[in-house]
UniProtKB/TrEMBL annotation:
Protein name: Lipopolysaccharide biosynthesis protein, LPS:glycosyltransferase
Native organism taxonomy: Bacteria, Bacillati, Bacillota, Bacilli, Bacillales
Keyword field: Glycosyltransferase, Metal-binding, Transferase
Family matches, as InterPro entries: Glyco_trans_8 (IPR002495), Glycosyltrans_8_dom-fam (IPR050748), Nucleotide-diphossugar_trans (IPR029044)
Alphabetized SUPFAM superfamilies for the sequence: Nucleotide-diphospho-sugar transferases
GO molecular function annotation: glycosyltransferase activity; metal ion binding
Length: 281
């Protein structure tokens, strides 16, 4: 039997439609969508939208099921700006899933996926707990959390997780403890906490796998000719587009160059028919 590849995301009711778009793009851009198993962490999704997500995956013969998270564990988590508490729930992924699963790929629910993510499941993790893409927001967060190293800071919107390594290092409890004890340090929520504890335990992926708005909109200035060459390829041919920041394609006046692509994939989902393309914010 062919080994299944596990994709995990998390959403509340407000972002359920946008997760449907992410899943549509994921499953459209792979030759064998039935090889995936999708798990959705339920951050408060209505029964109606749960069914629409199930229908979205079923159209590609892909199983989808829901994971229940211990909400009490996130009492100390701070929600602000455009980030709800549902964003934190990725921290509990290895504890909510079958221990026989070797790897999972976590994807945020504000992404468009244009390449086959199966390629990520074959990479050598080199002993690291997660693989991710550097964050291009230049937030300079590590020193503020007491990390004096010059190591990079990653964006947590896409995480390839070595499940056993995560459990062996007891990462869920460590991250939750950090959140509870350091609320003043979490400007970027769970992403800060993950970086504080995994700063030397993550593998850097090519930035095409998480093309953030800072890169797509040319807000980030490359530090070398080589880096600019790399980012130029990302802008021209991203594997995954991530709508980072508060400016989202479903908001009026959004200038992101992949706004039309968002609506093209929305049209392929049951959300389009049910809500007649109405915005869900």
């Amino acid at each position: 039997m062919k080994k299944k590849m596990h994709i995990v995301s998390s959403t509340d009711d407000n972002y359920a439609q946008h997760l449907g778009v992410t899943l549509s793009s994921l499953l459209e851009n792979t030759a064998t969508p039935e090889d995936f198993v999708i798990s959705v962490i339920d951050g408060g999704i209505s029964e109606q939208k749960k069914q629409l997500l199930l229908d979205t995956a079923a159209a590609y013969n892909t199983p989808l099921h829901y994971l229940e998270v211990d909400l009490d564990a996130y009492d100390g988590a701070i929600a602000s700006r455009h980030i709800s508490k549902a964003a934190y729930y990725r921290i509990s992924i290895p504890d909510m899933m079958d221990q026989s699963i070797e790897r999972t790929l976590y994807v945020d629910c504000d992404m468009l996926i244009f390449d086959d993510v199966k390629k990520l499941f074959d990479i050598d993790m080199e002993g690291n707990i997660v693989a991710a893409v550097s964050d291009y927001g230049e937030h300079n967060r590590l020193p503020k959390m007491g990390i004096t190293s010059e190591d990079r800071y990653f964006n947590s919107g896409l995480l390839l997780i070595d499940m056993q390594a995560w459990r062996d290092h007891n990462m869920t409890d460590k991250v939750l403890t950090f959140i509870d004890e350091n609320p003043d340090k979490l400007a970027w929520h769970d992403q800060d906490a993950l970086n504080a504890l995994l700063w030397d335990k993550w593998l850097i992926l090519h930035p095409k796998w998480n093309a953030q708005a800072h890169v797509t909109l040319k807000e980030y200035k490359a530090k070398s000719v080589e880096e600019e060459r790399t980012l130029r390829t990302v802008r021209g041919n991203p594997a995954i587009v991530h709508f980072t920041g508060a400016d989202k394609p479903w908001q009026e006046g959004c200038t992101h160059p992949y706004t039309e692509a968002y609506y093209a994939y929305l049209a392929k989902t049951p959300f389009s028919h049910k809500f007649n393309n109405s915005l869900s914010v």
